[in-house]
Amino acid sequence: MAYDILIVNGQVVTATETLRADVAIVGDKVVEVAPNLRREGVGTLLDAAGNYVLPGGVDVHTHIDMPLTDTISSSDDFETGTRAAAFGGTTTVVDYAAQSRGQSLKEAIELWKAKARGKAVIDYGFHCIITDLTDSVIHETDELVAEGVSSFKVFMAYPGRLMLDDGAIFRLLQRSAVNGSLVCVHAENGGAIDVLVKQAVAAGNTEPKYHALTRPTIAEAEATGRAIALAEMADASVYIAHVSCQRALEQIEQGRMRGLPVMGETCPQYLFLSLENFDVPAWEGAKYVLTPPLREKWNQAKLWDGLASGALQVVSTDHCPFNFRGQKDFAGNNFTRIPNGGPGIENRLSLIFTGGVLSGRFSVNRFVDLVSTTPARIFGMYPRKGTIAAGSDADLVIFNPHRQYTITANSHHMRVDYSLYEGLSVTGVPEVVLSRGRIIVRSGAFEGVAGSGEFLSRSPSTALRQTTRG
Ligand code: DUC
Ligand code: ZN
Ligand code: ZN
After folding, report:
1. pLDDT band at 208 (very low <50, low <70, confident <90, very high)
2. 0.90 exceeded by the pTM?
3. Given the CA of residue 61, which atom of ligand 1 is nearest to it?
């Protein structure tokens, strides 16, 4: 059998090994990984000399084409957002489809499928955000798992809008233990935060930095601990989304030390940015209004340590872009009206490679584990996604670990008018990106096709408990 594509001369990196090997592709699958594979009759030969060959990145936390209000949606649609992901070496996203009050979960998923269909350039799955947990919604979670939507998100913040109370979260966790789904939690104490927000506004403290100052780390830590306790009572696994600070991380560490199947992700913004980013002229601070918020800088080192030690298992982006002009700056002089969220889907691999591997914090294998393998495992996509092995999808990145570049909004591909990392120099660039055996990015040019990405039906993760106790 002649190979359609053969990648030669590269160093193949997985979560567990680094080897000099060729990677052979037939159709949309990797068929062989071994040294010196036959070159006769090969369709396309890709020379990866001097480069790593990585499994495509798996970003399990994005908000693409997400309506925030009647008039504001996140600024990337599934074409622009997944194209930018591809430029950054990410070949799978799991986006958050949101249930509106009164809506069935299936309606939410159908709506998100319609947003992605015909547009996505890489494969995509969905988690479903539950904002209205009725008896019928509880039953519906079983059906969604059967249809490949095997994870849900709940909010402990935003009372009256998105928040579920502890009883509802507990019921969902109990059900997840039965149907094999995974509950992802936005852990912040919404009731206390809302009081702090009202007090800040009443005192005239309305600039963007007060968004961060009214959401203290203890509010995140308390909710993280409560989510873990609820999961323990329900005998369920739990996944803590977007961990931003040491105090919340401690709660995860303590849970895991007690043998509980607790998992946590962090995001590049919490590793590279801090409260110091609010030291900019007046309303430019709106760019950094994210939830959970940016923290005091010393937390960054603790989060990196958590990634190195295994206390945190995933780096996702929480890509939720809003333009500075026309979306973020529409809020007037009031932080409560600034759309929360920032762009990042394109920057994750370069940032984590630079800050993690090149800074000596962890190995290139741990890097692959954090940005690809473990997210694929936790969310029921492994080994189809997240590794390089015979039978896996040919989602691959030829990654140049030496090339340096400066992140700027002028040169990024996300449809948003600013970068959280403007002017930051990083090293590590995806030179060639393949999605299911098709070259979609090569030498800085896009070669993919809108609509070629497919919906990924994800399994309940049977390996979950072993994975997390390891
Ligand atoms: N939670 C998220 O996961 N993303 C954006 C804002 C939020 O509250
Ligand atoms: Zn959240
Ligand atoms: Zn999010």
Report:
1. very high
2. yes
3. 3
The amino acid at residue 426 is: V
Is ligand 1 within 6 A of the CB of residue 181?
A: no
Q: What is the pLDDT of residues 97-121, one digit of tens each?
A: 999 999 999 999 999 999 999 999 9
Task: Identify the CATH assignment for 56-383 out of 3.40.30.10, 3.40.50.10710, 3.20.20.140, 3.40.50.150.
Answer: 3.20.20.140
* Whether the CB of 438 sits within 6 Å of ligand 1: no
Among protein residues, the one with the nearest Cα to ligand 1's atom 4 is 318
Query: What tokens does 446 get?
Result: 């896009």
For atom 3 of ligand 1, which residue has the closest CA? 318
> Is 60 exceeded by the pLDDT of residue 2?
yes
pLDDT of residue 464: 53
Mean pLDDT over the full length of the chain: 96
Q: What is the rounded CA–CA span in Å between residue 465 and residue 388? A: 23
Question: For ligand 1, what atom is nearest to the CA of residue 162?
Answer: 8
Distance CA 135, CA 138 (A): 5
CA distance 180 to 376: 16
Check if 319 has its Cβ closer than 6 Å to any atom of ligand 1: no
Task: Tell me the pLDDT tens digit for each residue of 224-247.
Answer: 999 999 999 999 999 999 999 999
Distance 184 CA to ligand 2 centre (A): 9
User: What's the gap in Å between 179 CA and the centre of ligand 3?
Assistant: 24
Q: Is the Cβ atom of 153 under 6 angstroms away from ligand 1?
A: no
Confidence (pLDDT) at 1: 79
pLDDT of residue 462: 55
Residue nearest to atom 1 of ligand 1 (CA): 291
Span from the CA of 40 to the centroid of ligand 1 (angstroms): 51
pLDDT digits (tens, 9 = 90+) for 37-72: 999 999 999 999 999 999 999 999 999 999 999 899
Atom 6 of ligand 1: nearest residue by CA position:
291
Provide the β-strand partners of residue 29. Answer: 26, 393
Tokens standing for 44? 């396309």
Residue nearest to atom 5 of ligand 1 (CA): 341
Question: Does the pLDDT value for residue 330 go beyond 90?
Answer: no
At position 445, the amino acid (one-letter code) is A
Contact 173, 141 (CB under 8 A): no
127 lines ligand 1 (CB under 6 A): no
Q: What is the SS3 assignment for 111?
A: helix
Q: Is the CB of 291 under 6 A from ligand 1?
A: yes
Measured distance CA(275)–CA(221) in Å, rounded? 18
Rounded CA gap, 152 and 241, in Å?
11
Q: What whole-number distance in Å separates Cα of residue 325 and Cα of residue 255?
A: 42
